[in-house]
């Protein structure tokens, strides 16, 4: 098999690998058009048609937008990756200098990274994982949260600032249905009742409790009208209500909160535009969301084309439609790039491609910078059920739960036993 899956894909079935010829998706000839305003009809049933006259491409039609639950099977941090096996066993690989792999020890400064998936040192079974730059958290089926790795700002939520090399329970009686770790030292959880709790660093109000004080224990986010159904953290924090209203809080550099200015917010603040969103993802000073029709909107910094506007430019302070007629069922925002899946499971990415995180077979070389300011098809024609963007790499699962990764691999975060950068999907074998 090609290391990038350009011509074939190998998927395990009954212990045997089979090669499937797959042509790469080509979005170069697709027309751009502005989507119609999505009606608040909910996320389970989408009835509106395409805003483009005569559109016949199924990837341009409205889609059923997915809940983000499947994304919890993968967790991409700054320099490490974790994933759940079919039996809910947690595996991690990459950099372990802060114990973020949960292997029971902290790697030495000059020790070679862990370059293949390795089981986390715990008998626990998780149903959800999330990763920050240097810490990782998991959620059991009972809703109990565990975290491990760097804890200098209290991001593990155990009431201390001690680094933990194995999963350690978050010190709370609250039961969660989802967890999300920030790119920096913070973590949030969505309780069973839809209440949000956050802990760790509160720099610029990222915990949403109205203060700037770090929290070593889960602390309630200031309430809004109605419960949240989804949380997401980048260098800022955002959430969706049950009604599809987006709120953001914390640092607002480059307009990352989408509220129309660059002033920080210490409590959840409505995103401008009053669009009903079905999915939301925050990353490095930017965020993107999907309407109920699957139209993508982004806001914040655009120095690498991470807003998908068709060009590199100044920050965008309010949600603006991505320059594509594609309709997506899910999306994810990383450090400086974003990816999304169409109804058919084809992956498209946009933004910085310095490390190959876009997956189109290219990357920056020397002084030649490669950026993709609008959705670009991931190489190989593979179809996926979930895609997750990290700081400089991307991973995705096929419908048969076969794992592929691409992008930066300096610390072995792709899990292919090497430290070589990959500019297209490479097969990763979970034990």
Short note summarizing the structure:
The chain has strands spanning 10-13, 16-19, 74-76, 80-84, 90-94, 114-119, 126-131, 135-140, 145-149, 164-169, 176-181, 186-191, 196-200, 215-220, 228-233, 236-241, 246-250, 265-270, 277-282, 286-291, 296-300, 316-321, 328-333, 337-342, 347-352, 371-377, 386-389, 393-397, 403-407, 422-428.
How would you sum up this structure, described in words?
This protein has one domain: Methylamine Dehydrogenase, Chain H (7 Propeller), CATH 2.130.10. The two termini are 19 Å apart. The protein is mostly beta strands and 431 residues long. The strands form 8 sheets. A 4-stranded antiparallel β-sheet has the order 3-4-5-6, with no helix packed on it. The protein is built from no helices and 30 strands. Helix content is 0%, strand content 38%. Residues 1-55 have low confidence and may be disordered.
Order of helices and strands: EEEEEEEEEEEEEEEEEEEEEEEEEEEEEE
CATH topology name: Methylamine Dehydrogenase, Chain H
Q: Helical percent range?
A: under 10%
SS summary, helix count = 0
Mean pLDDT level = 88
Strand content: 35-45%
Structural class category:
mainly beta
Extended strand count: 30
CA-CA gap between termini: 19 Å
CATH class: Mainly Beta
State the CATH architecture. 7 Propeller
Using only C-alpha atoms, the radius of gyration works out to 20 Å
Shape: globular
How many separate domains make up the residues? 1
Instruction: Kindly report the name of the CATH homologous superfamily.
Output: Regulator of chromosome condensation 1/beta-lactamase-inhibitor protein II
Strand order across the largest sheet: 3-4-5-6
Instruction: List the uncertain runs.
Output: 1-55
* Biggest pleated sheet: 4 strands, antiparallel
């Amino acid at each position: 098999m090609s290391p990038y899956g350009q011509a074939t894909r190998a998927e395990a079935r009954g212990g045997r690998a089979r090669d499937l010829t797959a042509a790469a998706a080509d979005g170069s000839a697709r027309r751009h058009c502005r989507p119609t305003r999505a009606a608040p009809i909910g996320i389970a049933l989408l009835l509106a048609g395409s805003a483009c006259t005569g559109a016949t491409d199924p990837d341009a039609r409205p889609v059923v937008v997915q809940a983000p639950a499947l994304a919890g099977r993968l967790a991409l941090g700054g320099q490490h990756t974790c994933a759940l096996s079919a039996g809910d066993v947690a595996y991690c690989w990459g950099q372990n200098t802060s114990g973020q792999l949960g292997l029971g020890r902290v790697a030495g400064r000059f020790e070679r990274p862990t370059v293949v998936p390795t089981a986390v040192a715990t008998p626990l079974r998780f149903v959800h994982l999330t990763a920050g730059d240097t810490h990782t958290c998991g959620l059991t089926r009972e809703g109990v949260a565990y975290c491990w790795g760097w804890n200098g700002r209290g991001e593990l939520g155990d009431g201390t600032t001690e680094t933990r090399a194995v999963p350690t329970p978050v010190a709370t009686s609250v039961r969660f249905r989802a967890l999300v770790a920030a790119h920096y030292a913070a973590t949030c959880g969505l309780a069973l009742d839809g209440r949000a709790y956050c802990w760790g660093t509160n720099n610029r109000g990222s915990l949403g409790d109205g203060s700037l004080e770090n929290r070593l224990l889960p602390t309630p986010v200031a309430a809004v009208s109605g419960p949240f159904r989804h949380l997401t953290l980048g260098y800022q924090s955002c959430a969706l209500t049950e009604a599809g209203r987006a709120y953001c809080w914390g640092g607002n550099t480059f307009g990352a909160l989408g509220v129309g200015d660059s002033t920080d917010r210490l409590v959840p603040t409505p995103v401008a535009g009053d669009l009903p969103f079905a999915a939301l993802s925050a990353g490095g000073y930017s965020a993107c969301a999907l309407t109920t029709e699957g139209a993508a909107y982004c806001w914040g910094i655009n120095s690498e084309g991470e807003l998908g506007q068709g060009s590199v430019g100044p920050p965008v302070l309010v949600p603006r439609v991505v320059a594509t007629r594609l309709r997506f069922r899910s999306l994810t925002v990383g450090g400086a790039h974003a990816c999304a899946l169409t109804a058919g499971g084809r992956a498209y990415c946009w933004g910085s491609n310095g490390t190959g995180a876009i997956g189109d077979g290219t990357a920056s070389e020397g002084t030649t910078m490669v950026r993709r300011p609008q959705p670009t098809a991931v190489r190989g024609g593979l179809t996926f059920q979930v895609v997750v963007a990290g700081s400089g790499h991307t991973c995705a699962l096929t419908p048969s739960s076969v794992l592929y990764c691409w992008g930066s691999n300096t610390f072995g975060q792709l899990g292919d036993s090497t430290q070589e950068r990959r500019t297209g999907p490479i097969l990763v074998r979970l034990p």
